[in-house]
């Protein structure tokens, strides 16, 4: 399992990026801006897929052109993971990139030896305070019920990714040596998905949106939710310091554009999910699982808790390869983001202190005649052909709404519930349900449902159809 980190971070040759452009100016009054992003890593969409589709960056730069006459040529480069983005930043071929927490740390470690390539983290795209953006899935018919059942099995993961880091930590917590207790195959997410489907591996440990996608497609079942670790995971933006020093107006425009995209996603999540689905090729129902209310917290601020989490990630990276020491505190720089907030007349410190998800369900549950005001229970129904969704006060109320809609002949496109134990937003029809008196409680995993059942005598595990029929 030991893998040289250098192979992970820079093993992708420059040729693999195709017609990459360097960021040298084409002429005296034209500046190149090369942005690396991951269209299918949907917690980076406010700095990638959604940002690109909405044209926010180009419009911000056009305003600068109007004022100064300087022109900007923006090139977007799409990758499956953060490693090739880092390789291109080491080569000074990408100026701004977005990726997950572990890849960002690898990025800082691998670029720091070259002043022209040296990077810094300047914003967060999205985060989950418990770690619920990483998951382990198994085949639908797998006998595995807990992570411990993977002992001696083959697990696909992208070594050095947040999904792999979560696996290592979770195995260790369960008393399984991550180096010898399982056989980890270092694979790209799409390769791992094929390996799971073909039976070449018995589990897949990945970051969003792969676990949700495979479960939604009926190709996998959730075995372990990273939120069980109760350790923050995040995605964010890195920039080459030399580029930012030479073109501070570009970084400011990018951060302003990211704030534009973040506001759009948080205020119009369903519309944003369609744009991201069109740009990434992912089903809109899967995008909305993560980008919808109660999913990922799309908050750009560099919170102290997230910086501390990054510091805690370093020992894992050192354990898997040649990770050069990195001053995480110095690697994280919030001055440009603070300036962007100030330019908009917004209070950065107030946003920094807030821990609430900026996008939550609200309103009134008409069927249950109850306010939708508790993020721990608020659920959501999306009917086929509807241009908006309906909020339910609780998972039990959601089941009633689904049954009521089906009785009218309506078709459910998707329904979302928060895991009763961990709070992770999940598909209602893929959840494991518990009947406890008149209440029905959803859990992402069988293990979570069993934990509740053992702690609450008289409660019973039921399947989705039984929950639907029983909710009254």
From TrEMBL:
- Tell me the keywords, alphabetical order: Signal
Q: Which InterPro entries match?
A: SsuA/THI5
Question: One Pfam family of this protein, by short name?
Answer: NMT1
Coiled-coil blocks: none
Is Metal-binding tagged as a keyword?
Answer: no
Where the record annotates domain SsuA/THI5-like, the positions are: 116-272
Where does the UniProt annotation place the signal sequence? 1-17
Among PANTHER family, the record links this protein to: ABC TRANSPORTER SUBSTRATE-BINDING PROTEIN, ALIPHATIC SULFONATES-BINDING PROTEIN-RELATED
Name of this chain's protein: ABC transporter substrate-binding protein
The species this protein belongs to is Mycobacterium dioxanotrophicus
What lineage is on file?
Answer: Bacteria, Bacillati, Actinomycetota, Actinomycetes, Mycobacteriales
């Amino acid at each position: 399992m030991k893998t040289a980190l250098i192979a992970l971070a820079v093993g992708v040759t420059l040729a693999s990026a195709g017609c990459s452009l360097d960021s040298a100016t084409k002429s005296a009054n034209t500046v190149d801006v090369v942005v690396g992003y991951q269209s299918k890593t949907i917690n980076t969409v406010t700095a990638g897929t959604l940002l690109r589709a909405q044209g926010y960056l180009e419009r911000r730069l056009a305003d600068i052109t109007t004022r100064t006459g300087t022109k900007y040529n923006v090139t977007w480069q799409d990758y499956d993971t953060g490693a090739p983005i880092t390789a291109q930043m080491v080569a000074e071929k990408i100026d701004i990139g977005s990726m997950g927490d572990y890849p960002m740390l690898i990025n800082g470690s691998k670029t720091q030896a070259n002043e022209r390539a040296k990077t810094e983290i300047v914003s967060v795209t999205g985060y989950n305070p418990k770690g619920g953006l990483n998951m382990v899935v198994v085949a639908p018919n797998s006998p595995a019920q807990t992570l411990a059942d993977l002992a001696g099995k083959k697990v696909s993961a992208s070594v050095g990714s947040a999904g792999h880091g979560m696996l290592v930590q979770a195995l260790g917590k369960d008393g399984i040596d991550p180096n010898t207790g399982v056989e980890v195959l270092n694979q790209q997410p799409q390769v791992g998905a094929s390996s799971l489907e073909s039976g070449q591996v018995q589990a897949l440990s990945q970051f969003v949106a792969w676990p949700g996608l495979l479960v939604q497609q009926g190709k996998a079942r959730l075995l372990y939710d990273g939120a069980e670790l109760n350790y923050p995971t995040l995605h964010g933006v890195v920039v080459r310091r030399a580029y930012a020093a030479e073109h501070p107006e570009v970084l400011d425009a990018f951060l302003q554009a990211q704030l534009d995209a973040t506001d759009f996603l948080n205020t119009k999540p369903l519309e944003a999910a369609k744009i991201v689905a069109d740009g990434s090729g992912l089903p809109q129902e899967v995008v909305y699982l993560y980008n919808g209310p109660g999913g990922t917290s799309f908050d750009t601020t560099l919170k102290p808790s997230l910086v501390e989490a990054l510091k805690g990630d370093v020992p894992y990276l050192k354990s898997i390869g040649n990770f050069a020491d990195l001053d995480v505190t110095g690697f994280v720089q919030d001055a440009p983001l603070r300036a962007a907030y100030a330019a908009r007349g917004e209070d950065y410190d107030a946003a920094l202190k807030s821990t609430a998800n900026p996008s939550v369900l609200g309103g009134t549950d008409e069927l249950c005649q109850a306010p939708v005001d508790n993020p721990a229970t608020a659920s959501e129904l999306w009917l086929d052909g509807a241009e908006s969704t309906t909020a339910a006060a609780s998972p039990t109320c959601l089941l009633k709404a689904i049954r009521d809609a089906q009785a009218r002949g309506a078709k459910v496109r998707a329904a979302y519930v928060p895991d009763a134990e961990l709070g992770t937003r999940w598909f209602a029809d893929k959840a494991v349900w518990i009947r406890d008196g008149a209440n029905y409680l959803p859990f992402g995993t069988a293990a979570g449902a069993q934990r509740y059942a053992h702690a609450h005598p008289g409660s019973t595990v039921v399947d989705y159809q039984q929950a639907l029929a029983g909710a009254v």
